[in-house]
Amino acid sequence: MPPRLIVTGSVRDHTGRRGDAVLVDGGRVAAVGRSGDLRSAGVAEVHLPATVLVPGLRDAHLHPVGLASLLQRPSLKPAADFAGIADILRDAARSLAPGVALTALRLDDESLAEGALPDRDFIDRVVSDRPALLIRYCGHVAVANSAALALAGIDAGTADPRGGSIDRDASGRPTGVVRETAVEPVAGALRALSPPVTADDLIATATGLASVGLTGVGAMVAADSGQWGCDGAELDVVLDAASHLPITFGVMVIAADPTELEVAAARLAATAGRVRFTGVKMFSDGSLGGHTAAMHEGFSDAPQERGTDRLDPAWCLSMARTSLRLGGRVAIHAIGDRANASVLDVMETLLAEGADPGLLRIEHASVLTPGDISRFGRLGITASVQPAFLASETGWLEKRVGPDRLRRTYPLRSLLAAGTPLAGGSDCPVEPPYPLWGMAAARDRCGLVPDEGLTAEQALHLFTEGAATAIGEDATLRPGAAASFTILDADPVEASPEELRTMSVRQVWVEGERVGIPEGTVVWKE
User: Fold this and answer.
1) How far is CA 450 from CA 407, 408, 413, 416, 444, in A?
2) What pLDDT was estimated at residue 1?
3) Does the N-terminal peptide bond of residue 429 adopt cis geometry, omega within 30 degrees of 0?
4) pLDDT of residue 407
5) To the nearest 5 percent, what fractions of the chain are helix, strand and coil?
6) I want to staple 458 with a disulfide (CB 3.0 to 4.6 A). Which of 47, 370, 434, 454 is the partner?
């Protein structure tokens, strides 16, 4: 790969402007500075005037197979009410062959006129000829019809699984609503009847991610079929697509036990392409939207409910030690304040055993006590945060947590002030995968507790060096770093949050190669 000089209007990172050009050689950054100083005979030049080059944008927490599944399956987000859901399901069923399971994603009870989840009887009236599963947009709650429940062997006598629950009516009959680990047997029962997500689907999805400026992601990937309603193991799809992926995947493996994690790590290490084993992903609780986040006190709109505790400390420590031994990181999902406290306890055990705090991540870190905000900084554990949550939760977040806890929900500025490393992400397909939108939400917080917002420079760092470090990449633009960068049509630091939301991505380069974005590339759908 011959050297090239990329000349733009300016080059900048979160520390300031660095010149107007980047010299690339062998897929690496050779130098950054003024084009007049870096220019030399025989070096080809790429000119992009009136643009701004920044370190490659990263998303530290994204479910790529989940996004590919969303792009292949019906979304329920556009539905305003149950009647709208029925219309979407009928249209989707007509397009499926007999016997094929129907899985729909992005069910959002908070945006429905009824303000509630549908039940099995509703789905049965609409879809009676096949099993059907409607997955709430958080991914932690789903609603199954009677056929799907029967396939999973769930009836009135079925006990709640550890870390999950089955909603029941007054007579004890399952309503079809399953939460947390209770989703898994239903999704598993539908696996063989569901269309697969193919390697081509995933490659197209990754190309869409490049089109919004991403050069790499922390890819949350299940060793099995996962939670997004598709046939085949997620890891198999990633490995099949690896040699053709346009961006890097730092794979955080969701595994059942240490042996499954070891096998997944070995398979990733033996695969050519832009994938690598980055660590293990685990869960300690659920979501705020689904009332399954583990809280110290009850939800403000459901005082009797304190969420779902999914954490098994002994199993969690075993998985964490295995990942660290394999050279990986440890990432544990924690939304509620009780869950975050429990996971910080686990992290303290690992640190006492000699773990590097830079390899430990808490995913979401949504609701925190003041003491645990301080503990984050003291321990040096990374908070992997998703500012885009604020955009979708503005209508109900205070109702869920109350005014006191709202001030310590997504406390970005307080975490940073405590010394906590922050990494930005989207949790897509829970939220859209646009990093510029995430930067905007980190700054203005969509109007929710604005004094917890970040500065423009901090928001840029969140989705460049912060996210890159959390997935084992280098976004410093230093000589020797991978030549992965994003070229925008304006300066993301000088732009207002609203301008960020409409800013255009001009080009994306990954490891010294420009990513081709075909016209009509699909990124997202509501």
Assistant:
1) 10, 12, 10, 15, 6
2) 80
3) yes
4) 98
5) 35, 25, 40
6) 454
Look at the block and give the residue holding tokens 């006492």: 352
The residue type found at 390 is: L
Tokens in use for 2? 């011959």
Alpha-carbon distance of 309 to 286, in angstroms, equals: 8
List the one residue out of 58, 57, 60, 62 whose CA is nearest residue 429: 62
Which two three-digit tokens encode residue 80? 């305003």
- Which CATH superfamily, name and number, covers 58-63+196-474? Metal-dependent hydrolases (3.20.20.140)
Q: What are the C-alpha distances in Å from 242 to residues 247, 248, 272, 273?
A: 10, 9, 7, 5
| Fold exhibited by the domain 74-193 | Diaminopimelate Epimerase; Chain A, domain 1 (3.10.310)
| Contact (Cβ atoms closer than 8 angstroms) between residue 319 and residue 255 | yes
Please state, in angstroms and rounded to a whole number, the distance separating the CA atoms of residues 339 and 334. Answer: 5
CATH fold for domain 1-55+475-517: Urease, subunit C; domain 1 (2.30.40)
Q: Are 119 and 181 in contact (CB under 8 A)?
A: no
Position with higher pLDDT, 458 vs 191: 458
360 close to 329: Cβ distance less than 8 angstroms: yes
Average confidence (pLDDT) over 360-364: 98
Alpha carbon 490 to its chain's center = 26
